[in-house]
Design brief:
single chain; mainly alpha; 3-stranded mixed beta sheet
């Protein structure tokens, strides 16, 4: 992630410093401003970058995920129905423009969309495999997608602009 941002100094500047620790927890990780907690039972490189994506968004008041949501035209069409029936995919988060980084599930929202997009930007080959296996391929004529690489997608372009010129 630091390499994509232009080096360690830019990474530190963008995230304002981050303390990373491990602890016993149910989820794979947790990212917030200046802090990333990873599950001591194990985690992947994807999880680390995903949680750093949350930390980056949080240190900016969650504005980057809000801006990406607006730019993609994504969101919940029926948030109350999703709240009461979260397992019904008809009420899940609509990814809007372009494919989501790796698919959509009941827990997907603007913050997860952003963190997944950051991880997909750093690990685009892994993102492609995940997207394909979860039914959201980047080349999907029925959905109007014809992207060869995550960086070519609308989300990839959004993250690229932040990596080059952060807020």
């Amino acid at each position: 992630m630091a390499g994509e941002m232009g080096g360690a100094d830019m990474f530190r500047s963008n995230l304002g410093g981050v303390k990373i620790r491990q602890e016993s927890m149910k989820s794979a990780g947790l990212g917030k401003a200046h802090s990333v907690t990873l599950n001591e039972a194990g985690f992947t490189k994807w999880t680390v970058v995903h949680e750093l994506g949350h930390a980056w968004d949080a240190v900016n008041g969650w504005q980057m995920s809000k801006d990406m949501q607006t730019a993609m035209g994504s969101g919940f069409a029926h948030p109350i129905l999703h709240f009461f029936d979260p397992d019904n995919s008809a009420y899940w988060y609509d990814p809007g423009q372009g494919p989501p980084p790796c698919g959509v599930d009941a827990n997907f929202n603007r913050k997860e969309d952003f963190a997944e997009a950051v991880a997909a930007y750093v690990y685009p080959d892994e993102a492609l495999l995940k997207a394909n296996s979860r039914g959201w391929p980047y080349i999907d004529p029925q959905r109007g997608y014809s992207y060869m690489h995550f960086h070519d997608t609308p989300r990839g372009q959004f993250i690229d602009a932040l990596m080059v010129a952060p807020p």
